[in-house]
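Input/output pair, single chain:
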Amino acid sequence: MELSKLLKHWKWIKTTRTGKAGGGTAIVIRRYDNSEKVHYIREVISKVGKRNMCNIKPKKSQSIINQLASGHTRLNSHQAKVNPDHCKTSLCTACQVTDNIDHYLYHCPKFAEERDELYRKVDNTLLDYDIINISTVNLKLLCGEHEDICKAANRELANHFSKFVLTTYGQN
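Output:
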């Protein structure tokens, strides 16, 4: 990191930790709003506050889901950017296409069985709660953060997704 960026970063950390009135919190929010990755998170989590997936056990799955929501993953496309010495390619080892979040969640043939099982569980949950207006499975739905679905159904969806990421994440 170049010196000017490092000093700005240190000043930001120092300001946020001082707790001075009107200083720290506003700076954190401004940095968050201006972050280039914030659109990934906002697609999944639109409301501030306690998230439905907060009760998911084990905590490891929460961490993985947060990585997927933020775009900061262990998938090759991200690792090739942040750690090019360690990860030489952004391609999926199973099918030689870009290994990104969409590929991992929706297309990689390596996880077809697990994904089919997840989709069956999602369909059953939506049917159990008489939810018929959802036609697309996306990260927001899988994370249990869909606004048009009751809290119980969202939690159930998040638990299904949690099991999927625990069995598949990091295997490609």
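Residues 121 and 160 are 7 Å apart (CA to CA). The chain has a mean pLDDT of 78.
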